[in-house]
Amino acid sequence: MFEETTYPYHQIIITTVLTRRAFAAGIAPAIITRGQSTRRPNLLFLMADDHAAYVMGCDGNRQALTPNLDQLASEGVRFAAHYCNSPVCTPSRQSLLTGQMPHSAGVTVLSTPLAADKPTLARQLRTVGYQTAVFGKMHFNRAAVPGLHGFDLVATEDVIQREWQRTVHPAPLPEGTRTKQLPWRPFQTPAREWLNAAKLPFPRHDAEMKGTFIVNQAIQYLEENANRQFACWVSLMEPHSPFDFPVEDAGVMDPRSFVVPAVGPRDGGQIPLIFRDLSAEEKQGIAAAYYTSAHFLDRNMGRVLKKLKELRLDENTLVVYTADHGYDLGQHGRFEKHCGYDPALRVPLILRHPGRIRPRVVKELTEHLDLGPTLLEHLDAPPLSVQHGQSLYKGRKLIVSEYLENEEVFVRTVRWKMIYGSGRRARTDGYVTDNPTPGRSTRLFDLASDPGEFQDVARADPKQAEALKKAALQRFRETHPEAADEPSQAGLDDLLDFYLTPRDAKPAPPRPA
Questions:
Q1: In whole angstroms, what is the distance from residue 392 CA to residue 378 CA?
Q2: Are 104 and 477 in contact (CB under 8 A)?
Q3: Quick one: which of 9, 48, 210, 311 has the most CB atoms within 10 Å?
C-alpha cells in the first residue's frame, strides 16, 4: 500500500453564501436535512484523461457505454457546458489544482512541473483536517514524495508503474488472441498504430490492467480510512491514446457503426501532417478504440463508487467526476486535443452529494477554474490565496481557454467562438502542419448557425471578433503575473501576442533552411 427532482418540505435549506434570488432560481447547491451530521463531507475526486464530454450516454450519445457515469449524473448535478482552461494535460491539470489560469500557475506546456510551493486544493483541505491522497496520473512531472502539492499519500505515475509491474503479473491469454504491439511509441510509428486504429486490446485481462490496479489501491485506501475525513483523488489514464482496454472488451464496439466526421472547406491546411494518410476505415477504428477505452474507464469508476456505497460513505461524500480536457475524434481531421474546437475544450463535470446537491443539469457556461472555489466552499475550507474562478452555480457569459504551445487563445460565448493565434511559434508538440508559422489569424464562428465551427465569419463581423479578443485581453490583464510589464501603446493583437508567449517553454528548434 502506498504512502430534475424536488425535495420534501421538511428539509432545511442552508443559505450561508448564495442569495435568496439564487435559491428562487433553483440553482442552490446546498440542501441539508434535519439531523444530518455537521462533520465536513469527504471528497472523492474522480478524473479521466482526454475524456470528451460528448462521449457519455448522459450527454445524449447513444453509442457511448458509460452506465456508471450516467448513473452518477442522474444522482447529482451535471454541468453540460463545462470547459477546460487549456486543451493539454499538464497545464489543464495544474490550473485545476491551483485555481489559476495556466499562465499564472506557471505551467503552459506539457513538460513543466508545477512549482512545489504553489497553493493547491489539497493544501487548503489539509488546513481544515482532511487526510489527502492521490492515486494515478497527475502530470506533476516530479517524483512522488509524501506531502507533494499537499497530498499526504502520493501514488502517482512513477509509483503506480513500479508497483503495478512488481505485483501484478499477467495470466496467459487464449491462443490466437490479437493484442496491440508494445511498447507504445507515439509519433515514432504511424498514427494508425499509436492511435490503435486496429482496435486491439492491451495484452492483459481486466483484473491485471493498470487502471484496475489504480482503482484497487484507491479502494483499499477508502477501506482503511473510512472513519477519517478524507479527500481522495483517483485519476486514470483512460481514454487517452493508445486507448487501452482489456482483452474482455475486444468486441464491445463495431468500428463500422461510427461515422467519420466531415472535414470543413478550410480545414485542409491545418490538419496535422501525421493524420493526413489515415483512411476512413482507420478513422472508424480509432473512434471505436476510444469509445471502448471510455467504457473500460466507466467500469473502473463504477468500482470505486460501488465501494463508497458499500462502506456507507456515499451519503457524506462529495463526489466529483471530470477530465483534464476533451478530444477530437476526426472533427476537422484531427485525432487529438491541442486546439480550440469545442470537442477538445468541453469536458464532463458531475458533482454528487446526496441531500446537499439537487440532481439536475446546469446548461450555463462554466470553466475548470470555477471548480476549485466551489469545492472549497462546499467543504467549508478557506479559499485559495489566488483564485481566478467563481462559484459554478453563477454561470458565465463567456469562457477563456489557452494553448500557449501554439500561442493561441479561445473565447466562447453561448453563440460565438473566437480563436486567435500569433502564428509565429513553431510548435514542438508534434502536430506540425503545412505552414508551421503562418502569422496572425483571427477566426470567428457563429455557433447558432455553424455548431461544427466550419465557417469563419471574422471578416464579415469584425466588431464581434474584436470584442472577444478584448475579452481575452481582459482575462490576461486580470490574471497574468507580468501584466505590469505590458507594452505601452501597443495594438490589440500585439498585446495578445505579449501574453501568449509561453514563459515556461524551451525555445523552438530552428527551422531547416
A1: 11
A2: no
A3: 48
